[in-house]
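Lesson 9: reading folded outputs for more than one chain in a single document. The general rule is that every protein is listed as its sequence immediately followed by its C-alpha coordinates, and records are never interleaved. Here is the first one.
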Amino acid sequence: FHVLVDFVSEMTAKGYKVTTPKLPWSGKKGKAEYTGSLDDTFEIIKGEIASLRQSGRKKIVIAGHSMGAAGAVAFAASGLSVDGLVGIAPGHFPGSNFHNKFVFFDVKKAKQMVYDGIGHQRLQVEDYNSGGRRFKMEVVAKDYLSLFDPQGPMNFGSSIEKLGETPLLWVAPDSDPVTKQGWAKEYFLMAPK
Protein backbone atom coordinates (compact mmCIF):
# COMPACT_ATOMS: atom_id res chain seq x y z
CA PHE A 1 0.00 0.00 0.00
CA HIS A 2 2.86 2.39 0.79
CA VAL A 3 3.93 2.08 -2.86
CA LEU A 4 0.71 3.74 -3.99
CA VAL A 5 0.89 6.44 -1.33
CA ASP A 6 4.43 7.31 -2.43
CA PHE A 7 3.47 7.20 -6.11
CA VAL A 8 0.46 9.48 -5.63
CA SER A 9 2.49 11.89 -3.51
CA GLU A 10 5.31 12.13 -6.07
CA MET A 11 2.96 12.53 -9.06
CA THR A 12 0.90 15.18 -7.27
CA ALA A 13 4.07 17.07 -6.31
CA LYS A 14 5.04 17.13 -10.00
CA GLY A 15 1.72 18.80 -10.86
CA TYR A 16 -0.28 15.81 -12.11
CA LYS A 17 -3.90 15.33 -11.10
CA VAL A 18 -4.18 11.90 -9.48
CA THR A 19 -7.33 10.10 -8.40
CA THR A 20 -7.40 6.86 -6.41
CA PRO A 21 -10.85 5.29 -6.62
CA LYS A 22 -11.76 2.33 -4.44
CA LEU A 23 -11.96 -0.64 -6.83
CA PRO A 24 -13.73 -3.96 -6.19
CA TRP A 25 -10.50 -5.69 -5.15
CA SER A 26 -9.53 -2.99 -2.67
CA GLY A 27 -9.22 -4.04 0.94
CA LYS A 28 -7.23 -3.57 4.10
CA LYS A 29 -3.82 -4.91 5.14
CA GLY A 30 -3.31 -6.87 1.92
CA LYS A 31 -6.69 -8.59 2.16
CA ALA A 32 -8.95 -7.94 -0.82
CA GLU A 33 -12.70 -7.66 -0.43
CA TYR A 34 -13.94 -8.34 -4.02
CA THR A 35 -17.07 -6.23 -3.82
CA GLY A 36 -17.85 -6.29 -7.54
CA SER A 37 -16.94 -7.52 -11.00
CA LEU A 38 -14.46 -6.43 -13.62
CA ASP A 39 -17.33 -4.63 -15.38
CA ASP A 40 -17.93 -2.68 -12.16
CA THR A 41 -14.22 -1.80 -12.16
CA PHE A 42 -14.40 -0.55 -15.72
CA GLU A 43 -17.41 1.64 -14.89
CA ILE A 44 -15.52 3.20 -11.98
CA ILE A 45 -12.49 3.88 -14.18
CA LYS A 46 -14.65 5.31 -16.99
CA GLY A 47 -16.28 7.63 -14.45
CA GLU A 48 -12.88 8.84 -13.23
CA ILE A 49 -11.71 9.42 -16.82
CA ALA A 50 -14.87 11.36 -17.67
CA SER A 51 -14.41 13.55 -14.60
CA LEU A 52 -10.76 14.22 -15.46
CA ARG A 53 -11.62 15.07 -19.06
CA GLN A 54 -14.39 17.44 -17.90
CA SER A 55 -11.83 19.21 -15.71
CA GLY A 56 -9.72 19.84 -18.81
CA ARG A 57 -7.21 17.00 -18.58
CA LYS A 58 -6.06 15.97 -22.06
CA LYS A 59 -3.92 12.88 -21.41
CA ILE A 60 -5.09 10.08 -19.12
CA VAL A 61 -2.70 7.43 -17.82
CA ILE A 62 -3.95 4.58 -15.67
CA ALA A 63 -1.55 3.26 -13.05
CA GLY A 64 -2.11 0.19 -10.93
CA HIS A 65 -0.22 -1.85 -8.38
CA SER A 66 -0.35 -5.67 -8.29
CA MET A 67 -3.91 -6.67 -9.25
CA GLY A 68 -4.58 -3.03 -10.16
CA ALA A 69 -1.93 -3.29 -12.88
CA ALA A 70 -3.73 -6.30 -14.34
CA GLY A 71 -7.00 -4.37 -14.20
CA ALA A 72 -5.45 -1.40 -16.00
CA VAL A 73 -4.10 -3.65 -18.75
CA ALA A 74 -7.47 -5.42 -19.08
CA PHE A 75 -9.18 -2.01 -19.33
CA ALA A 76 -6.95 -0.88 -22.20
CA ALA A 77 -7.10 -4.31 -23.89
CA SER A 78 -10.89 -4.16 -23.93
CA GLY A 79 -10.69 -1.22 -26.33
CA LEU A 80 -11.53 1.50 -23.81
CA SER A 81 -9.60 4.69 -24.42
CA VAL A 82 -6.55 5.53 -22.34
CA ASP A 83 -3.33 7.33 -23.26
CA GLY A 84 -0.92 5.17 -21.29
CA LEU A 85 -0.49 2.54 -18.59
CA VAL A 86 1.82 2.14 -15.61
CA GLY A 87 2.03 -1.30 -14.01
CA ILE A 88 3.70 -1.19 -10.61
CA ALA A 89 4.77 -4.72 -9.66
CA PRO A 90 1.93 -6.38 -11.63
CA GLY A 91 0.84 -9.44 -9.72
CA HIS A 92 -2.36 -11.04 -11.00
CA PHE A 93 -1.85 -13.53 -13.82
CA PRO A 94 -4.95 -15.61 -14.63
CA GLY A 95 -3.96 -18.17 -17.22
CA SER A 96 -0.49 -18.78 -15.79
CA ASN A 97 0.37 -22.15 -14.26
CA PHE A 98 1.17 -20.43 -10.95
CA HIS A 99 -2.24 -18.77 -10.81
CA ASN A 100 -4.19 -21.79 -12.02
CA LYS A 101 -2.89 -24.11 -9.31
CA PHE A 102 -4.34 -21.80 -6.65
CA VAL A 103 -7.73 -21.08 -8.21
CA PHE A 104 -8.58 -24.22 -10.21
CA PHE A 105 -11.19 -25.66 -7.83
CA ASP A 106 -12.70 -22.31 -6.88
CA VAL A 107 -13.06 -21.34 -10.56
CA LYS A 108 -14.64 -24.73 -11.26
CA LYS A 109 -17.19 -24.22 -8.44
CA ALA A 110 -17.98 -20.67 -9.61
CA LYS A 111 -18.47 -21.81 -13.22
CA GLN A 112 -20.84 -24.52 -12.06
CA MET A 113 -22.84 -21.98 -10.07
CA VAL A 114 -23.14 -19.71 -13.10
CA TYR A 115 -24.12 -22.70 -15.26
CA ASP A 116 -26.78 -23.64 -12.69
CA GLY A 117 -28.21 -20.11 -12.81
CA ILE A 118 -27.06 -19.15 -9.33
CA GLY A 119 -23.99 -17.10 -10.24
CA HIS A 120 -25.35 -14.18 -8.20
CA GLN A 121 -24.92 -16.23 -5.02
CA ARG A 122 -21.81 -16.27 -2.85
CA LEU A 123 -19.27 -19.04 -2.55
CA GLN A 124 -16.30 -19.51 -0.27
CA VAL A 125 -12.91 -19.25 -1.95
CA GLU A 126 -9.32 -19.07 -0.83
CA ASP A 127 -7.69 -15.84 -1.90
CA TYR A 128 -3.95 -15.98 -2.36
CA ASN A 129 -1.48 -13.16 -2.57
CA SER A 130 1.97 -13.35 -4.13
CA GLY A 131 3.28 -11.97 -0.85
CA GLY A 132 2.54 -15.35 0.73
CA ARG A 133 -0.75 -14.37 2.39
CA ARG A 134 -3.85 -16.55 2.04
CA PHE A 135 -7.38 -15.84 3.19
CA LYS A 136 -10.75 -17.59 3.18
CA MET A 137 -13.53 -15.34 1.97
CA GLU A 138 -16.97 -15.30 0.42
CA VAL A 139 -17.52 -13.70 -2.99
CA VAL A 140 -20.27 -13.56 -5.61
CA ALA A 141 -19.55 -16.41 -8.06
CA LYS A 142 -19.92 -14.39 -11.29
CA ASP A 143 -17.80 -11.53 -9.90
CA TYR A 144 -15.10 -14.00 -8.89
CA LEU A 145 -15.02 -15.44 -12.41
CA SER A 146 -14.66 -11.99 -13.99
CA LEU A 147 -11.46 -11.50 -11.99
CA PHE A 148 -9.99 -15.03 -11.73
CA ASP A 149 -11.15 -17.19 -14.65
CA PRO A 150 -8.06 -18.19 -16.69
CA GLN A 151 -10.16 -17.90 -19.87
CA GLY A 152 -11.74 -14.63 -18.69
CA PRO A 153 -11.05 -10.97 -19.36
CA MET A 154 -8.30 -10.74 -16.71
CA ASN A 155 -6.09 -13.29 -18.50
CA PHE A 156 -2.96 -11.16 -18.38
CA GLY A 157 -1.20 -12.76 -21.35
CA SER A 158 -4.19 -12.22 -23.63
CA SER A 159 -4.74 -8.67 -22.38
CA ILE A 160 -1.17 -7.50 -22.76
CA GLU A 161 -1.03 -8.78 -26.34
CA LYS A 162 -4.08 -6.63 -27.20
CA LEU A 163 -2.66 -3.29 -26.07
CA GLY A 164 -1.98 -2.09 -29.60
CA GLU A 165 -0.36 1.34 -29.53
CA THR A 166 -1.06 2.02 -25.83
CA PRO A 167 2.26 2.86 -24.13
CA LEU A 168 3.10 0.67 -21.12
CA LEU A 169 5.60 1.37 -18.34
CA TRP A 170 6.20 -1.78 -16.28
CA VAL A 171 7.90 -1.23 -12.92
CA ALA A 172 9.41 -4.56 -11.84
CA PRO A 173 11.23 -4.34 -8.50
CA ASP A 174 14.16 -6.75 -8.12
CA SER A 175 12.70 -8.05 -4.85
CA ASP A 176 9.32 -8.91 -6.44
CA PRO A 177 8.76 -12.70 -6.83
CA VAL A 178 7.37 -12.04 -10.33
CA THR A 179 10.68 -10.46 -11.31
CA LYS A 180 12.80 -13.12 -9.57
CA GLN A 181 10.98 -15.94 -11.41
CA GLY A 182 11.41 -14.21 -14.78
CA TRP A 183 7.68 -13.73 -15.30
CA ALA A 184 7.89 -9.93 -15.42
CA LYS A 185 10.21 -10.05 -18.42
CA GLU A 186 8.22 -12.86 -20.04
CA TYR A 187 4.92 -10.97 -19.83
CA PHE A 188 6.43 -7.60 -20.72
CA LEU A 189 7.85 -9.10 -23.91
CA MET A 190 4.29 -10.06 -24.91
CA ALA A 191 3.35 -6.39 -25.16
CA PRO A 192 3.25 -4.95 -28.69
CA LYS A 193 6.44 -3.13 -29.60
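And here is the second record, again sequence then C-alpha coordinates.
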Amino acid sequence: QSILHRGDSEHPSHRRVCWFTVFLVQLLFWFRADTIAGYQPGDIRFNAAGDMSFLVRRLKRGSAHIQPFSKGIPAPTTEILGTIFAVIRHAVSVKTANGTYCFGPWLWGDQPGNVSDKITCAMDELLDYDDLFIPEGSFVSSHSWRKTGASAFAACRGDWHLLMRWGMWKAIASAQAYVNLEY
Protein backbone atom coordinates (compact mmCIF):
# COMPACT_ATOMS: atom_id res chain seq x y z
CA GLN A 1 0.00 0.00 0.00
CA SER A 2 2.74 2.48 0.87
CA ILE A 3 4.14 2.49 -2.67
CA LEU A 4 0.84 3.92 -3.87
CA HIS A 5 1.13 6.95 -1.58
CA ARG A 6 4.77 8.03 -1.96
CA GLY A 7 6.42 9.22 -5.16
CA ASP A 8 7.88 12.08 -7.10
CA SER A 9 6.40 15.45 -8.02
CA GLU A 10 5.72 14.54 -11.68
CA HIS A 11 3.24 11.72 -11.02
CA PRO A 12 3.17 11.06 -7.29
CA SER A 13 2.07 7.45 -7.26
CA HIS A 14 2.18 6.35 -10.89
CA ARG A 15 5.91 6.48 -11.38
CA ARG A 16 6.71 4.76 -8.11
CA VAL A 17 4.17 1.95 -8.43
CA CYS A 18 5.27 1.33 -12.02
CA TRP A 19 8.94 1.04 -11.03
CA PHE A 20 8.06 -1.38 -8.24
CA THR A 21 6.04 -3.32 -10.80
CA VAL A 22 9.10 -3.54 -13.06
CA PHE A 23 11.04 -4.98 -10.11
CA LEU A 24 8.26 -7.47 -9.31
CA VAL A 25 7.91 -8.60 -12.94
CA GLN A 26 11.67 -9.06 -13.26
CA LEU A 27 11.73 -11.04 -10.01
CA LEU A 28 8.76 -13.26 -10.86
CA PHE A 29 9.75 -13.99 -14.45
CA TRP A 30 13.57 -13.67 -14.02
CA PHE A 31 13.64 -11.25 -16.95
CA ARG A 32 16.54 -9.17 -18.13
CA ALA A 33 16.08 -5.45 -18.74
CA ASP A 34 16.10 -6.15 -22.49
CA THR A 35 12.96 -8.26 -22.11
CA ILE A 36 11.27 -5.46 -20.17
CA ALA A 37 12.35 -3.06 -22.95
CA GLY A 38 10.29 -5.07 -25.44
CA TYR A 39 7.10 -4.68 -23.41
CA GLN A 40 4.10 -3.14 -25.14
CA PRO A 41 0.80 -2.24 -23.45
CA GLY A 42 -1.34 -5.34 -23.19
CA ASP A 43 1.61 -7.76 -23.03
CA ILE A 44 0.82 -8.53 -19.38
CA ARG A 45 -2.58 -10.17 -19.16
CA PHE A 46 -4.73 -11.81 -16.53
CA ASN A 47 -7.27 -14.46 -17.50
CA ALA A 48 -10.61 -15.18 -15.80
CA ALA A 49 -8.94 -17.71 -13.47
CA GLY A 50 -6.45 -15.07 -12.29
CA ASP A 51 -3.40 -16.48 -14.11
CA MET A 52 -0.89 -13.88 -15.34
CA SER A 53 0.94 -14.09 -18.65
CA PHE A 54 3.65 -11.95 -20.20
CA LEU A 55 4.12 -11.80 -23.98
CA VAL A 56 7.89 -11.84 -24.49
CA ARG A 57 8.95 -9.86 -27.58
CA ARG A 58 12.62 -9.37 -26.83
CA LEU A 59 15.39 -11.35 -25.14
CA LYS A 60 19.11 -10.60 -24.90
CA ARG A 61 20.56 -7.80 -26.96
CA GLY A 62 20.91 -8.94 -30.52
CA SER A 63 17.83 -11.17 -30.42
CA ALA A 64 15.23 -8.43 -30.60
CA HIS A 65 13.49 -10.04 -33.56
CA ILE A 66 12.32 -13.24 -31.88
CA GLN A 67 8.99 -14.90 -32.45
CA PRO A 68 6.93 -13.62 -29.50
CA PHE A 69 6.03 -16.22 -26.91
CA SER A 70 4.16 -16.18 -23.63
CA LYS A 71 5.33 -17.05 -20.11
CA GLY A 72 2.71 -17.52 -17.47
CA ILE A 73 2.28 -17.77 -13.72
CA PRO A 74 -0.77 -19.47 -12.17
CA ALA A 75 -3.26 -17.52 -10.11
CA PRO A 76 -2.04 -16.66 -6.61
CA THR A 77 -2.64 -19.11 -3.80
CA THR A 78 -1.31 -16.88 -1.02
CA GLU A 79 -2.25 -13.42 0.19
CA ILE A 80 1.16 -11.95 -0.62
CA LEU A 81 1.05 -13.24 -4.21
CA GLY A 82 -2.50 -11.93 -4.50
CA THR A 83 -1.26 -8.50 -3.45
CA ILE A 84 1.64 -8.66 -5.91
CA PHE A 85 -0.69 -9.61 -8.75
CA ALA A 86 -3.05 -6.75 -7.77
CA VAL A 87 -0.19 -4.22 -7.86
CA ILE A 88 0.90 -5.49 -11.29
CA ARG A 89 -2.69 -5.46 -12.62
CA HIS A 90 -3.06 -1.87 -11.39
CA ALA A 91 0.28 -0.62 -12.72
CA VAL A 92 -0.20 -1.93 -16.27
CA SER A 93 -3.54 -0.11 -16.50
CA VAL A 94 -2.46 3.33 -15.24
CA LYS A 95 -2.26 6.10 -17.83
CA THR A 96 -0.81 9.60 -17.80
CA ALA A 97 -3.03 12.66 -18.31
CA ASN A 98 -2.46 12.43 -22.08
CA GLY A 99 -3.47 8.74 -22.22
CA THR A 100 -0.01 7.15 -22.38
CA TYR A 101 0.44 4.00 -20.34
CA CYS A 102 2.83 4.68 -17.44
CA PHE A 103 4.21 1.11 -17.43
CA GLY A 104 6.19 1.11 -20.65
CA PRO A 105 8.47 3.44 -22.59
CA TRP A 106 7.02 6.46 -20.73
CA LEU A 107 8.77 5.06 -17.65
CA TRP A 108 12.01 3.66 -19.05
CA GLY A 109 12.42 5.43 -22.40
CA ASP A 110 12.42 4.21 -25.96
CA GLN A 111 16.06 3.11 -26.21
CA PRO A 112 16.26 -0.62 -25.33
CA GLY A 113 20.00 -0.41 -24.67
CA ASN A 114 19.42 2.14 -21.89
CA VAL A 115 16.68 0.28 -20.00
CA SER A 116 19.13 -1.63 -17.79
CA ASP A 117 20.69 1.63 -16.60
CA LYS A 118 17.26 3.20 -16.02
CA ILE A 119 16.10 0.22 -13.94
CA THR A 120 19.33 0.21 -11.93
CA CYS A 121 18.99 3.96 -11.26
CA ALA A 122 15.36 3.44 -10.15
CA MET A 123 16.49 0.65 -7.83
CA ASP A 124 19.14 2.93 -6.30
CA GLU A 125 16.55 5.69 -5.84
CA LEU A 126 13.64 3.63 -4.53
CA LEU A 127 15.09 0.67 -2.62
CA ASP A 128 16.66 0.71 0.80
CA TYR A 129 19.40 -1.88 0.33
CA ASP A 130 19.98 -2.07 4.09
CA ASP A 131 16.54 -3.70 4.43
CA LEU A 132 17.20 -6.33 1.77
CA PHE A 133 19.01 -9.65 2.08
CA ILE A 134 21.95 -8.76 -0.10
CA PRO A 135 25.35 -10.24 0.72
CA GLU A 136 27.93 -7.61 1.70
CA GLY A 137 29.92 -6.39 -1.30
CA SER A 138 27.38 -7.55 -3.88
CA PHE A 139 26.98 -5.58 -7.09
CA VAL A 140 23.31 -4.62 -7.43
CA SER A 141 21.80 -3.88 -10.83
CA SER A 142 18.72 -4.58 -12.94
CA HIS A 143 20.13 -8.06 -13.52
CA SER A 144 20.01 -8.79 -9.77
CA TRP A 145 16.30 -9.67 -10.04
CA ARG A 146 17.17 -12.56 -12.35
CA LYS A 147 19.80 -13.82 -9.93
CA THR A 148 17.50 -13.40 -6.95
CA GLY A 149 14.68 -15.35 -8.61
CA ALA A 150 16.96 -18.23 -9.58
CA SER A 151 18.61 -18.24 -6.15
CA ALA A 152 15.26 -18.29 -4.33
CA PHE A 153 14.03 -21.14 -6.51
CA ALA A 154 17.20 -23.16 -5.88
CA ALA A 155 17.03 -22.43 -2.14
CA CYS A 156 13.55 -23.99 -2.11
CA ARG A 157 15.17 -27.10 -3.55
CA GLY A 158 13.60 -26.51 -6.94
CA ASP A 159 14.30 -28.92 -9.77
CA TRP A 160 17.32 -27.84 -11.86
CA HIS A 161 15.57 -28.71 -15.11
CA LEU A 162 12.69 -26.39 -14.18
CA LEU A 163 15.14 -23.71 -13.10
CA MET A 164 16.92 -23.92 -16.45
CA ARG A 165 13.65 -23.84 -18.38
CA TRP A 166 12.21 -20.86 -16.48
CA GLY A 167 15.49 -18.95 -16.76
CA MET A 168 15.85 -19.98 -20.43
CA TRP A 169 19.34 -21.39 -19.90
CA LYS A 170 20.59 -24.16 -22.19
CA ALA A 171 23.56 -25.21 -20.07
CA ILE A 172 23.49 -26.13 -16.39
CA ALA A 173 26.72 -24.15 -15.89
CA SER A 174 24.92 -20.99 -17.03
CA ALA A 175 22.10 -21.61 -14.57
CA GLN A 176 24.50 -22.40 -11.74
CA ALA A 177 26.29 -19.09 -12.31
CA TYR A 178 23.08 -17.32 -11.25
CA VAL A 179 22.44 -19.27 -8.08
CA ASN A 180 23.77 -17.79 -4.85
CA LEU A 181 22.16 -19.37 -1.81
CA GLU A 182 23.11 -16.29 0.26
CA TYR A 183 20.63 -14.19 -1.73
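What the second record shows: Residues 163 and 180 are 13 Å apart (CA to CA).
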